[in-house]
Structure formats: structure tokens, C-alpha cells
Design goal:
Elements lengths: L10 H14 L3 H12 L13 H6 L11 H13 L2
Pfam family, one: DUF6364
Protein name: Antitoxin
Organism: Sphingobacterium micropteri
């Protein structure tokens, strides 16, 4: 569900951001939403109840010898995906 958000920013910042978004083929709203997603990735937790039964069964079945920082990898991949 989308909800409207009103922001107050300097006019020059808005104009520059609109140009940047246009160059990236995004709306300004998409760009702001993607930025918020990127910076809040650590605060958003997926609760087990929200996962489908199939996904719940798959959780934890892949083991690795390496100590992988999945949050860092996720942050980097989101940055690539959303161009931040």
C-alpha cells in the first residue's frame, strides 16, 4: 500500500534530484523510496509468520564453512540494484 509523504527541501536540491532521477529512469518518489529501503535494511525484520510454509522449511538448510556477513552483502546488492 502506498502512502503519501510530504517533504520540505531546498528548491535546488529538489531540482537536482529530479534531474538525477530522470537520468536513471526513475521517478523521484521511487528514488526516495529506494534510498529509504537501503538505509533501513537493518531495521526491517521479516518475521517467521510472514514467510510462506515452503520458505519456512527452507530456512537454515544451506550451510557454509565461511563466516559470511549476509547483511553487508544484502546492503551492497541493494545499492547496486537501486543505484545508490
Amino acid at each position: 500500500m502506498n502512502t503519501k509523504l510530504t517533504l520540505t527541501l531546498e528548491k535546488e536540491v529538489i531540482e537536482t534530484a529530479k534531474e538525477y532521477a530522470k537520468d536513471k529512469g526513475q521517478s523521484l518518489s521511487e528514488m526516495v523510496e529506494n534510498y529509504f529501503k537501503l538505509i533501513t535494511v537493518d531495521r526491517r525484520n521479516i518475521k517467521t509468520k510472514q514467510l510462506s510454509p515452503k520458505v519456512q522449511k527452507l530456512r537454515g538448510i544451506i550451510k557454509t564453512d565461511k563466516n559470511i556477513d549476509y547483511k553487508q552483502i544484502l546492503t551492497e546488492e541493494l545499492a547496486k540494484k537501486y543505484g545508490v
